[in-house]
Amino acid sequence: MKKIMVIILISVVALNAYSQVENQVDSKTTKKLTKAQRMEQRRIEAEETAKLVNWMVENKQFVLEANYLSNQYGERQVVSSNINFIAVDSSKITIQLASLSGIGGANGMGGITADGTISQFRVEKVGKDKKGYTIRIMAMTHIGSYDITFFITQGGNADATISGTTRGKLNYHGTLVPITVSKVYKGMAI
After folding, report:
1. 2-61 tens-digit pLDDT
2. Residues paired with residue 126 on neighbouring β-strands, in sequence order
3. CB 3.0–4.6 Å: which of 40, 101, 133, 178 could bond 152 by disulfide?
4. Which residue, 107, 117, 57, is CA-closest to 83?
């Protein structure tokens, strides 16, 4: 009887140990599978974003919503993206600079809003795989003419440098958004 009990006990221990090893393998396989699925999902999302950015650039229908502004010396300021933007709509452009205080300024938002027309629009693909963009725009507004250079990644991150007839430069740093999706608030234009 003791032999039978010992054999049953050894069998139970062996089965328990085997089932734990099998569960660990399944857990690792599951983690690898979910990691592969996440990687595939990210790749698909990146492709869709790249297609959207390409469409916005080709159709001249985008808004650069700035999270930061900087000057020619690199001094950065955090700003609100829904009131600091550059909007391009075919042959029209809107450049807005505003503050959260909303006090003063020609646009009633502590800054300035300039509507104008685009006289020149040149697109160049850049980068190793030619998926990024450099856009050069010449814009005429009621307050002056501006040269604007956009640097856009395939992921939709964008920087723009505005230079006018004076020495200074203003840089917008943010993301590119389709005009139909953008939630910017436009002040009174000059």
Report:
1. 566 656 656 655 556 555 544 455 666 666 667 778 888 889 999 999 999 999 999 999
2. 132
3. 133
4. 107
Tokens 């963009």 correspond to what residue? 133
CATH code, 182: 2.40.128.410
Is 151 within 8 Å of 157 (Cβ atoms)? no
Residues 159-185 as b or e (16 or more Cβ within 10 Å = b) = bbebebeeeeebbbbbbbbebeebebe
Phi first, then psi: give them for residue 172, nearest 5 degrees.
-105, 135
Q: CA 188 to CA 175: how far, in whole Å? A: 23
Q: Is 124 helix (H, G, I), strand (E, B) or coil?
A: strand
Contact 82, 185 (CB under 8 A): yes
Q: Are 161 and 60 in contact (CB under 8 A)?
A: no
CB atoms within 10 A of CB 136: 13
Residue 98 belongs to domain spanning: 1-190
In contact, 57 and 123? CB cutoff 8 Å: yes
- Contact present, 150 and 159 (Cβ < 8 Å): yes
Q: How far apart are the first and last CA of the chain?
A: 101
- Supply angle C-alpha 54, 93, 182, rounded to 5: 60
pLDDT of res. 38:
83
Helix (H, G, I), strand (E, B) or coil at 87: strand
